[in-house]
TrEMBL record:
Protein species of origin: Sphingobacterium griseoflavum
Keyword Nucleus applies: no
Name by which UniProt lists this protein: Thioredoxin domain-containing protein
Pfam families linked to this entry: Thioredoxin_2
Lineage, highest ranks first: Bacteria, Pseudomonadati, Bacteroidota, Sphingobacteriia, Sphingobacteriales
Residue ranges of domain Thioredoxin in the record: 7-147
Length: 412
């Protein structure tokens, strides 16, 4: 009987604890969600997520369960989670939403994750938020979706109704970029360029804005930067991105990445570079191709080619490669490659990362590479140095590695 009484007492407590965060609808349909919103005069909040999306998982684990987040969303919205991908482990409830998820992706241009859609009590889309955020910031973004003056759709309607308002076109373009509404971003950016035109467009603030709107080599923003590269560099100054970098980034996404993603063929980087030089001779793609090359061979797990690509990248960028990048390159080789030439190259990168910057993690990488290369004595000295500089939370792992080194055991 005491056990039964305890169970009866704890059930209400657990129910109360679960209500601290956002309460999402389950075992329902879109029509039922809309009907509930209309009956309760609440807006609808839809979390469009995927199972593989890191920021989506962060929002679900760390933001949505917070009491203040639950208080705001439960008071103002009927809340729904909509899984946009399909997996073999999906429940019947998730499967029942497959068709609706496909429709959402098409009708509401859901292309990035997480995307959060807000509908009014009548079931009409009024606002969109792309990307997560911490609790207070996210509540503020959702609050904007409740006010007709700040709703995304309101801004879009004003844009459509005022085709000669340049400031509104610029504001709409920026909002569309943030919302990953690519079609509208292109349209609004093109309108702004057309309305302002000429020398008036060539200001530092405008160039920074237009750089975001240069989404293809045929876009008006791209063409404007291309035709004024020297002036753009003057406006952005030494601390800003160079015009070449802006244009190279666009061409990378447009031409290089589709080739990289074609898993059926090995990438011929020489041919790719020649194609780019022929089609876009005004842009130097050397640096960005060198960076992409390191990523490509890492993904292919071709460590000798990765080693050569990293060496080329470092040589090309001289001292501009960050210690973090050098350490990451070196650790990738340590974990994955036994080739002596690769390990020696990684030792060089790791040693360079330590120049004036003896971070414990970098020292640990260097020690592990020394150990893998066969220099046990020096490896132990550097591992002891890493331990001496490490925080209390880091020490345990470093000490365990040191013990393995002293015992002659593998550390990889």
């Amino acid at each position: 009987m005491k056990k039964l009484l305890f169970t009866l007492l704890i059930i209400p407590f657990l129910g109360f604890a679960q209500e601290k965060g956002i309460v999402f609808e389950h075992q329902t349909t879109w029509d039922k969600v809309k009907a509930k919103a209309k009956a309760t005069d609440k807006y609808i909040f839809v979390d469009c997520f995927t199972t593989w999306c890191g920021p989506c998982k962060y929002m679900s684990s760390n933001v949505f369960p917070q009491e203040k987040v639950g208080d705001f969303f439960n008071a103002n919205f009927v809340n729904l989670k909509l899984q946009m991908d399909q997996t073999k482990d999906d429940s019947d409830d998730v499967k029942s939403w497959y068709q609706e998820a496909d429709r959402f992706a098409k009708d509401y241009a859901v292309r990035a994750y997480p995307t959060f859609l807000i509908f009014n009590p009548e079931g009409e889309l009024v606002h969109r938020i792309v990307g997560g955020g911490e609790a207070d910031d996210f509540i503020a973004k959702a609050q904007a979706g409740l006010d007709p003056e700040t709703q995304y759709v309101t801004l879009v309607n004003k844009f459509e109704q005022n085709p000669t308002d340049a400031d509104l076109a610029k504001k709409t373009a920026k909002a569309a970029m943030s919302a990953y509404d690519q079609d509208l971003a292109k349209k609004a950016t093109a309108r702004y360029i057309d309305l302002v035109g000429g020398e008036a467009l060539l200001t530092a603030e405008n160039i920074q804005f237009l750089a975001q709107g240069a989404t293809s080599s045929t876009s008006p923003a791209f063409m404007l930067i291309k035709e004024n590269m020297q002036k753009v560099d003057e406006l952005l100054g030494d601390k800003g991105r160079k015009s070449n970098d802006i244009l190279a980034s666009v061409l990378s996404n447009e031409i290089v990445m589709p080739v990289i993603r074609n898993k059926n063929e090995e990438v011929d980087f020489t041919a790719l570079k020649e194609r780019l030089a022929k089609e876009h001779p005004y842009v130097d793609m050397t640096s960005i191709l060198a960076s992409i090359k390191t990523q490509y061979y890492f993904s292919k797990k071709n460590w000798p080619a990765f080693k050569d690509a990293v060496n080329d990248y470092i040589a090309l960028n001289n001292k501009k490669v960050s210690p973090n990048a050098l350490n990451s390159f070196a650790w990738s080789v340590f974990e994955n490659c036994d080739d002596a030439a690769c390990i020696q190259a990684a030792l060089n990168w790791s040693k360079q990362s330590l120049e004036g910057n003896e971070e414990p993690a970098f020292l640990d990488t260097y020690a592990n590479l020394l150990y893998k290369s066969g220099d046990k004595e020096t490896a132990i000295k550097y591992q002891e140095k890493a331990i001496a500089k490490a925080s209390d939370s880091e020490k345990e792992n470093y000490v365990a590695t040191l013990d393995k080194m002293k015992k002659g055991e593998q550390t990889w």
